[in-house]
Each structure stands twice: as structure tokens, then as C-alpha cells.
Design brief:
Blueprint lengths: L7 H7 L2 H12 L9 H16 L24 E6 L3 E6 L4 E5 L4 E6 L14 E6 L3 E6 L4 E5 L6 E5 L3 H4 L2 E6 L3 E6 L2 E6 L1
Antiparallel strand pairs: 1-2, 2-3, 3-4, 5-6, 6-7, 7-8, 9-10, 10-11
Helix pairs in contact: 2-3
Amino acid sequence: MHVTQVCRTWRRASQSDLLWQTLTRRIWNRHHLLHPSWHQEYIYRHRTATNFHNRRYNHTTLNFPPNDNNNNNEALSCRRIALSDYHLAAGFSDGSVRLFHLPTSLHVSTFHPHQRNHFGQYSRAVSGIFFTDTRLVFSSFDGDIHVASIHVPGALRRAHLGDVVTDGVLLDFTGSNRWWIGLYAGTLSCMHI
């Protein structure tokens, strides 16, 4: 076993949670804990970065129940994905979004917005997804924007009713807790919440 000796000053400094918090914030821009201490958070982020650099990974196939509206999951095409610390959201060509819990790889919920189908089935495909602290926000090519609660399965509301004729097709969509931004065919639109 190889043991490295360090001075007492460094040993005391290395036990400071403030040191690990500062390093974690500066290196990985993390401002909240997912682990019991900032030291453990730093170690987790460092190992993840090292594994990414060395191309070491694990993968899991995510299973979800059949689509009740379509009964043809083979024809479903995943159009967008979004990732948070605990969840993965996958948006499909039929307009549905499936939410998975990452630590367990389990399907949590499927969100099926009320479809309007003005311009065929393609207009309802998911064009953007992002997470806020407690919500999942997603859009479709027809410009509709939907908000779902992560912690309440199936709870979904339409936050914005799109108008393809006036605005154009909503090609891409993202946001944060305060802002939503959409890239429409021909225009750029920003919404303040």
C-alpha cells in the first residue's frame, strides 16, 4: 500500500466543507448538494468527469408501458431528451413525454397533452424539454407549451396555446425558472414568467 503524507495544515484545510463547496461551485458550477457533504459531492463529480474522460460508462435500457393512444410503440420516435439530477425526460413524435427516475431507472409518469392536430401528426411532436426545480416544461412543433409537475404524475396544463399560422413552427425550445425561449421558423420569441 502506498501512503502519501501531507502536512498538518493541508490535512486541516482539506477537512473544511467550505473548501470543497468552493471547489465544487467553481469547477462544476454546482450550488446544491446531492450527497451528504461538499467533499463527497466533489468526489462524485470528479469521478464522473474522470469516467467520462476515460470513456468508462454503464448503460441501461429504459422500459415504459405501451402508449394507450397509439398501441404502436415501434412507430414512436424519440425527438428530444432532457436531464436533471434525478430525472430523464424523453419527448416523442406523438407529443407524449415520458419521465424516468435515474437512480432506479424506473418509469415515473407519461404526460399526454390534449392534441389539436391542425397540420397533421408531425405538428404535435415534442420540440423542446427542460426542467425547473419542480416542473417539467415541454413544447410541440405547433407552438403549444405544456407544464407538468414532476412530483404529481399526470398533472399537466397547457401554458401557451401556439398559433402556427401567425408565429410559425416552434423548432426548438428551452428555458429556466424565470425565462422560456423558443426558436420559431423565421422568428425568435422570448417569454418572461
